[in-house]
Each structure stands twice: as C-alpha cells, then as structure tokens.
Amino acid sequence: GESVGLHLPTLSVQEGDNSIINCAYSNSASDYFIWYKQESGKGPQFIIDIRSNMDKRQGQRVTVLLNKTVKHLSLQIAATQPGDSAVYFCAAPKSSTLGRLYFGRGTQLTVWP
Amino acid sequence: GAGVSQSPSNKVTEKGKDVELRCDPISGHTALYWYRQSLGQGLEFLIYFQGNSAPDKSGLPSDRFSAERTGGSVSTLTIQRTQQEDSAVYLCASSSQGSSNQPQHFGDGTRLSIL
Description:
Radius of gyration of chain A: 13 Å
Structural class of chain B: mainly beta
Distance between the termini of chain B: 33 Å
CATH superfamily of chain B: Immunoglobulins
Largest sheet of chain B: 6 strands, mixed
Strand content of chain A: over 45%
Largest sheet of chain A: 6 strands, mixed
Oligomer: heterodimer
Helix content of chain A: under 10%
Order of helices and strands of chain A: EEEEEEEEEEE
Number of domains of chain B: 1
Mean pLDDT of chain B: 92
Radius of gyration of chain B: 13 Å
Shape of chain B: globular
CATH class of chain A: Mainly Beta
Low-confidence stretches of chain A: none
Low-confidence stretches of chain B: none
CATH topology of chain B: Immunoglobulin-like
Distance between the termini of chain A: 41 Å
CATH class of chain B: Mainly Beta
Strand content of chain B: over 45%
C-alpha cells in the first residue's frame, strides 16, 4: 500500500539557520504532496503543496523540492525562527481521485535561540 | 469563524460510554474527513464524505465507530462502548473539492480520554 515517511524524527537547529526536512514516498503514481506544521495542542496547519508536474515551489521562507526519480521530497525553511518549532508532516493522497491523505509520522523541529 | 471548528475540545469519559464528536467544516467545502492521531503518531484516516456520495468508511477501526454528515455540512463522529484504546485526538478536515489536488484544512481536534 501507499506510505509516506520522514527520514528523521527530530531535527534541532539554531535560530537563523536553514532547516531541511526530508520525506520519502512509495507510490510512484502519487501526483500531489502537502506539508503540514503541527504545534502542540493544535491541528495540522497547511504550509505548502506541490504537484508532480513541478520540481520546486516556493512560499514565504519555505521551499518544497520534489524528486520523482527517487520518490523524495523536502521542505526547506529559510532563516529558521523559534516560532517554527513544531512537528512537520508530509502527506500524499491515496490516489488522484480519492482525497484521503497518507501521513508520515512527523519530524519534530526544535529551534534554539 | 473561517476555519474548521470542532467540539468539544476535550472529552473525558468512562470506558463503555458512548461519545459524540462534532465538526463544522469551512463554509462551502464539499469534502469532509475524519482522522485519528495517537500520541506521537501520524494521522490515521477514519472516514471521508464528499457531497452526496456514499462515504468512504474504509478507515473505521471497528463497528463501534460511525459518522454522519447532515445537510452536507456538519458532521458527527460517534464512538459506542468506548475502550481505552480509543483515547486519541480526533481531527476533522475539509477541502473545497473531493479531488486529491486540494489541500485539506484541519480543526484543532477533540482530545478524547477514556478512563
């Protein structure tokens, strides 16, 4: 079945550094990917998405890279701030017609001052 | 409000009792999803509603779990005869379409604790 998974469960960075969170997926037919941020006691918050016809997409301080050849995507956060501390999930839908999402187990990002 | 609203935010109940969890999706969103998140885990899909189509119930863990969506808007997730393993955060999400290429927006969940 489909699966998505993050490479590292925890990541610690210093304030101002760039952060990179990686994710692998198994379904080569996956055509849409989403990154979510979840703070303690809150629901997942949409950060950025990317479709399979793109290799890169940029938002405010965030960039998502998609490598379909090796079925890998990454979330890059520029100039990481303490407010970025949270659990980050990558997610992908089951198929192009069904919206249920498969989530990785998450990476806990901790930003040190 | 503009976001997905869930109630109650916390629920503590005794084993064997029934519970109802409510979700108000974003206005105009036709697709609604329920997920469950156990401590330190990713999200586990439960059920999905899209418009007037039959719901996708394939993620419900047992027949003690059921959900309905009335009038294409508000949804209620019901757990009968609760067990301790049902303790988790139950998250609701909605999206503007049922197709996969629209982001799902989540509420803050109901934290359910079974004593």
